[in-house]
Amino acid sequence: MSGQENGPEGVLLVDKPQGCTSHDVVDSVRRLYRTRRVGHAGTLDPMATGLLIVLVGKATKCSDRLMAQDKEYLGEATLGVVTDTQDAEGAAVETHAVPEIAEAQVRAALAAMVGDQDQVPPMHSAKKVGGRKLYELARKGVEVAREPRAIRVSEFELLAWESPRIRFRVRCSKGTYVRTLAHDLGRRLGPGAHLSMLRRTRSGSLDVNAAVTLTALGALDAEGLAGRLISPSGLLPQE
Fold it and tell me: Are residues 79 and 174 part of one domain?
């Protein structure tokens, strides 16, 4: 969808590559669509790939409602190494030998983490405490108390267990830190763990299979770019 008078407008589904920030994607979309009015509905960490919902023009007003929907991810947790960021981008702060763990133990640990729960945001996150982003404090070696937030893990499915790696699929509520789930899973199993891969596959009814890569987007002409924009009206959950 595109407004001729007010510039481009609509929802753009992008398959974010590894190594760039969500803001990098927003900047790329701003250049391609020649508009500053671009946002997104839910950040992905630089390490993560997959579905990033980019909002162009008046569609930015739908950010909160689109962000409120459940998310689905494919991920991998690597046992035996705990990092300061809880993912592969951080520095190792603990290393432990990985004992023999049966698949049934892994399945039981995942099952125990399904349901409503409180999750403490990691220090390396963009959440603000006292007006400061936590990761800014973490980079200075400062750790502060964080209020837990209510989350829900609807599904936590084992896809493969090949020690020390656990591949999984998780469906969870907005605001859930999957790297913290991986960290907590490692604690449950004993040797600790960090998130070594993450890919967002769904957000509400939106699927990464309908998304476009930045490379493919950059190859489109003006008509093709306009054709990738979706009207937000059919994407919002009914109230």
Answer: yes
